[in-house]
Amino acid sequence: MLHERRRHAVLRRGLLLVGTLLFLVPFYLLLRGAFSSEADLTSATWHWLPPTWEWGNLAAVFDNRTVPLGRALLNSTLIAVSQTVGVLVLSGMAGYGLARIPYRWSNVVFWLITVTLLIPAAVTFVPSFVLVSSLGWISTLRGLIVPGLFQALATFLFRQFFLSFPREIEEAAALDGLSWWGIFWRVVVPNSGGFAAAIGTITFIGSWNAFLWPLVIGRTPESWTVQVALSTYLTAQTSQVSLLFMAALVAILPLLLMFLLLQRWIVQGVERTGISD
Amino acid sequence: MLTRLRGRTNRDASLWFWVFVGPFFAGLVLFIYVPIGWSVYLSFFEAYNTVTPTEFVGLANYRDMLTDQAFRDSLLTFVVFAAFIVPTTFALSLLTALLVARTRVMQAFFRSVFFLPVACSYVVAALVWKMSIFSGMSSGAANALLGLAGVSPIPWLSITDPPWYWLVIVSARLWLQVGFYMILFLAALQRVPVTLYEAAAIDGAEGWQVFRHITWPQLLPASTAVLLLLLINAFQAFDEFYNILAGFSGYPPYARPPLVYLYYTALGSGQNFGDGSAGAVILTVLIAVVALAQTRLLRLGGRD
Predict the structure, then answer these.
(1) DSSP characters for B158-172?
(2) Nearest CA to CA, how far is A133 from chain B (Å)?
(3) What is the arithmetic mean of pLDDT over B180-184?
(4) Which of B25, B160, B233, B273 is the most exposed place for a label (fewest CB within 10 A)?
């Protein structure tokens, strides 16, 4: 029996190592491609590592006139930051109001919000496009940012979170004469950092990696996000492959850094969003 | 209750309710309810190249969509895709969760490795898959590996018989998604009471028996949730199909899941917003049915 248990442990460790290697292969290939010269990358003989490391690819990818990578990075940053802040403020406030403030139609409003969870955002891209184009927001930052600010799932999760917030603290604040506004911003918000970080990181990742909506709305190169810029040159197959890899590396670098620093919150965010969906 | 605040007038409270909920709710109405309403309206009209309805056509757009072979093909493509991606992602994420949960050495490291792809976008994954792993040239990683075994290069994406492109598309999504669902399974595993395992150990249960009779029943609610999330996400697949299959000469006529089909109908050269809206309405109804079935099943699964 002991022998068998040992064999199981070895099998488990073996599987884990094989899985780890397989999951890291795409990152390795991305790095290899980003620092290879075009000739080495397309040569028929396989090189495990670039025979010559092309550090110049990094500068070249920002110099390239046809791929406005700098502008795309700026757009993606503006969109992801403002959507993260916007979702936290709008859904945080709405979640608190729904959880705490007594109002006769509160349940109806809550129902109208949660029922939209049944309709995935991706399916509504045609109707949303119709609306945004009649507002004249095509190819503008407004058109890229504003429709993504109203996340029913985030509001739903904030409401659940605030329902479990200790009432005693809020009651003490009310006795001190604070209004709902004061209680929320001065007592509740400072004590909700962890939950906000979980929702915030997940929102940021979703926003940075979003593709369909930015593709539909960003019609001019000036309004491309990083993902749309990459995709345009990937599907057109015109630019150099090694530069494509370098651009992709630059595009995922901010998120990889975030992963290393904030993984704890991201994991919590995944747990919360996945379970309640 | 917040006694002091409750003492104030009702009107005061409803005012504060709208101060807190109003901005979000107004946005939700404007960007979800209004578009859907407009789209339902538009779906009864002719609307080429314009988002203002031109001529009332009744149910013609719906008839167009439902009799359109390409639309039905897109639903079939979704079924094939789901048949590939749902069981494989489910099995792999459960397996990695079990492996990571059982390991004592470098658990955080292994968890991070499987979770890391969640940071990548579909576009970046599509790039690596298309230009490196499954590049049709002999310099592609898969072909280089096959070359060692004397197999000549396979054009993974440019032939349809055998349909290798499914391997490319499914493996890309698998890599991106497994870590996400692994986290959900890990969280569920942590909620299994330790006493259950202790009781099983006392009864002499081993390995597979423990999984079959203790772990699996406890994972059932999470499993149901994961299955239906997988299904709904597969229904919305767009990014990897578009980025892997669209090329210099446009998107091939095959392998178009519903959103890709809708994208080319409404926003492609046709700009047929009437048909596009009808298609969106049909898909929304289909998804809502699946989602309602999901909540039903979840209730049956004993979740609250």
Answers:
(1) T--SS-THHHHHHHH
(2) 8
(3) 93
(4) B160
Q: Which residue's structure tokens are 């969760």?
A: B97
SS3 B250: strand
Distances (CA, A) of A171 to A131, A176, A185, B112: 43, 9, 14, 41
Residues of B in contact with A124 (CB under 8 A): 32, 35-36, 39, 280, 284
Residue type at position B190? Q
Encode pLDDT of A112-143 as tens digits. Answer: 998 888 776 666 788 888 889 889 999 999 99
Asked if B3 and A171 come within 8 Å (Cβ–Cβ), the reply is yes
CA angle A141, A143, A148 (to 5 degrees): 100
Tell me how far apart the alpha carbons of residues B302 and A74 are, in angstroms, rounded to a whole number.
47
pLDDT at B2 over 60: no
Six token digits for residue A111? 């129902």
Go through A135-148 and write b for each residue having 16 or more CB atoms within 10 A of its CB, e for each that does not. Answer: eebbbbbebbbbbb
pLDDT of residue B297: 66
Q: For B49-102, how does the pLDDT look when each residue is reduced to its tens digit (9 = 90+)? A: 777 777 888 888 898 888 889 899 999 999 999 999 999 999 999 999 999 998
**Interface A:B, Cβ pairs < 8 A:** 302
Q: What is the ipTM of this complex?
A: 0.90
Rounded to the nearest angstrom, the minimum Cα separation between B11 and chain A is: 9
Question: Residue B46: enclosing H or E segment and its boundaries?
Answer: strand B45-46
What does CATH list as the number for B63-300? 1.10.3720.10
Q: Which residue in B126, B141, B158, B164 sits closest to B241, CA to CA?
A: B126
Residues in A closer than 8 angstroms to B284, CB to CB, are 119, 123-124
The residues facing B272 across adjacent strands are B48
Domains and CATH numbers, chain A: 66-276 (1.10.3720.10)
pTM (predicted TM-score): 0.90
Residue A157 distance to chain B (closest CA, Å): 14
One-letter-per-residue 3-state SS of A71-133 = HHHHHHHHHHHHHHHHHHHHHHHHHHHHHHCCCCCHHHHHHHHHHHHHCCHHHHHHHHHHHHH
